[in-house]
Amino acid sequence: MIYLDYSATTPCAPQVLAAMAPYFRDRFGNPSSSHAFGREAKAAVEKARLQLAEFVGCGPGEIVFTSGATESNNLIFLSLLLDVKETRRKIAVSAIEHKSVLLPAKNLGTRGFDLTLLPVTSNGIVDINVARKLITEDTALVSVHTANNEIGTIQPVKELAEIAHRVGAKFHTDAAQALGKMPFDAQQLDCDLASFSSHKIYGPKGIGALYIRGGSRKWPWDYPLYGGGQESGIRPGTYNVPAIVGFGEACDIMSLNCSHFLRKLSSLTQAFEKLLSAQHSPFLIHCQESPRIGGLSSIYLNSPKAELILEHLSGVAISKASACNSSSLEKSHVIQAINSDYSLSDKTIRVSFGLETDDSNVADLFNDLMNSVQVIHK
Ligand code: PMP
After folding, report:
1. C-beta 31 within 6 A of ligand 1
2. Atom number in ligand 1 closest to CA 322
3. CATH assignment of the domain containing 88
4. Any idea which of 19-23, 129-133, 309-313, 354-358 has the lowest mean pLDDT?
5. Is 191 in the same domain as 93?
6. CA 363, CA 317: separation in Å to the nearest integer?
7. What is the model's pTM?
C-alpha cells in the first residue's frame, strides 16, 4: 500500500524521533520546576520555540505552544466570545475554512456575533472585492487560512490582512496546510495571529502553536483557560516537552531543505497531473489553474460509476475530499463552495505527496486509477 495522504498527516522524520527520545525518560523534568531537571527541560522548550519562530518568521516571544491547529483556532474564537470588553460584534471567515475555524465561528454566530462567510470564486480563492465590502468597521476578527486542505488553493492572505487592518479588525490565518508546502512568513504576511500543527511537517501529532503578533502582551481578548499559567496564561497546562522538541526539530529540517522539498512536491504534482490530462481519462483536477500548494491534487471523477471506481482502488492510501470528511456522509463544504460544475464531493478524491514519495509512486497511483476505471467500465 502506497501512502499518498500527506495532507492528512506525515510520518515523524527519523531525526525528529531521535531528538524527542531523551525527553521521555532521561530528561523528563517539568519546565516549570526551578531545579536542574526543570531548567534542562525549559531550555529544550525554548530552543524549540526559537526553531519554530525562525521557521515562520517571528520572534520566539510571539509563539504559544498548543496541542495543534484545532486548539489554536478554537482558542481565538473562544477568547473573543468570552471578552465582555469587545464592542465589535462581527466576524468574517472564508466559506472554505477547516472545520476548526468554521464551527467555532458558527458557534459565535449563535451567541450574539454576526458571522459573515466570505465567498470564494470557482477558482477556490476568496473573492477580494466581495471581502472588501463585507469587512466593515464593526468587524472584530477576519480569519482566512493560508492554504486550503482539500483543494490546496493559496489564499490572498496579505491583501486580506490589509483589508482587515484598514477597518481596525484583527487578522488570523490558519497555516496548518501551508507550513512546509509554501514559503510562510508571519511578519511579511502581516497577520496578527496564525495557527500551526507539527504533524503536517514530519513532527509528532498533538502539538502545534499559535503565533501572536507582539507576544502575549498583545493578546487582544480574555483568556479562556485557567491553570498553572504556562505560556503566559494563554495556554496553561504542563508542557509536552518531547513533542515540543520534536516540533522544533521538524521545523529545522524543513527550513534546511525547504527549497529542495518545495521543488520536489511541485514536480511530483506536475508529473501526476500531466499524466491525468494527457489521457482521455474521466479525471478532472479542481482549481487546476489557481495558485496551489505543491503536493496536493483534488480530483473529480467524471463518471456515473465514480464511487465504484474509487472503492476499487486497492494499492494507494488516499482521501475522499479530505481526511476529516472521509468517514462522514456529509458533503464537502469546500467542493460545494467552489460552485464547480463538478460539485459532487462524493466523486472527489484528494491525493497528497510528501518527502518519501517518488516518481514510481506517482506512476503506480496513475496506473491504479486507470485500472480501476477499466475494470468498472468493462
Ligand atoms: N486547519 C487545517 C487547514 C487543517 O488541514 C487541519 C488538519 N487537517 C487542521 C486545521 C487541524 O489540525 P490538527 O488536527 O492538527 O489540530
Report:
1. no
2. 8
3. 3.40.640.10
4. 309-313
5. yes
6. 14
7. 0.96
